Amino acid sequence: MALLRYESQVREPLVTGAKTYHDVTEDIVRPIEAAPSRLWKIGFTISVILLLFGVYSVYREVVYGIGEWNLNKTIGWGWDITNFVWWVGIGHAGTLISAILLLFRQGWRTGVNRAAEAMTIFAVMCAGQFPIFHMGRVWMAFFVLPYPNSRGPLWVNFNSPLLWDVFAISTYFTVSLLFWYAGLLPDLATVRDRAKVKWRKNLYGVLSFGWTGSTKHWQRHEALSLVLAGLSTPLVLSVHTIVSFDFATSVIPGWHTTIFPPYFVAGAIFSGFAMVQTLLIITRKVLNLNDYITMEHIEVMNKVIVLTGSIVGIAYITELFISWYGQNPYEMAAFKNRYDLSTPYAWSYWLMMSCNVIAPQFFWFRKLRRNILFTFFMSIIVNVGMWFERFVIIVTSIYRDYLPSSWSTYYTPSIWEVGFYLGTFGLFFTCFFAFAKYFPVIAIAEIKHILKKNGESYKDNMGEEEKATVEHFTHEHAHH
Amino acid sequence: MAKKKFVVGCFDDEKVLFPAVKKVRKAGYKIHDVYTPFPIHGLDQAMGLRDTSLHTAGFIYGITGTATALSFMSWVFNKDWPLNIGGKPHFPLPAFIPITFELTVLFSAVGMVLTFCYLCQLAPFVKKHHFHARATDDLFVMVLECTSRTNEADAKAFLDSVGAKEINVQEAEDGWWLGRYAKDQKLYSTPSENSLA
Question: What CATH number is given for B3-51+127-196 in this structure?
Answer without folding.
Answer: 3.30.70
